[in-house]
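Tokens for chain A. Residues wanted.
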């Protein structure tokens, strides 16, 4: 079971000025998939780190600004995967 924050919810984290959100990505089934999604999201301006869980499909994005859901969805789509909306 994957527990995540809603796609549009961003919260401050420990580092000053940082925000995070966790989304679910469908279609990742190997380490190469994780790398493709992670690299795509890392290409978004302001993104500091991305962690993807292969088993659950959960992808956590840390950024120094609010990152719009549409930006994440576009990066995931460009990598060849689907952002699962809740």
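Reply:
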């Amino acid at each position: 079971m994957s527990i995540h924050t809603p796609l549009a919810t961003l919260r401050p984290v420990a580092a000053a000025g940082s925000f995070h959100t966790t989304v679910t990505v469908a279609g990742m089934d190997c380490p190469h998939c994780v790398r493709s999604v992670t690299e795509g999201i890392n290409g978004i301006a302001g993104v500091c780190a991305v962690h993807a869980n292969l088993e659950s499909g959960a992808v956590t994005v840390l950024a120094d600004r609010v990152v719009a859901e549409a930006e994440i969805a576009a990066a995931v789509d460009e990598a060849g995967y689907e952002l699962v909306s809740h």
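The domain at 11-84 is CATH 3.30.70.100 (Alpha-Beta Plaits). The chain has a mean pLDDT of 85.
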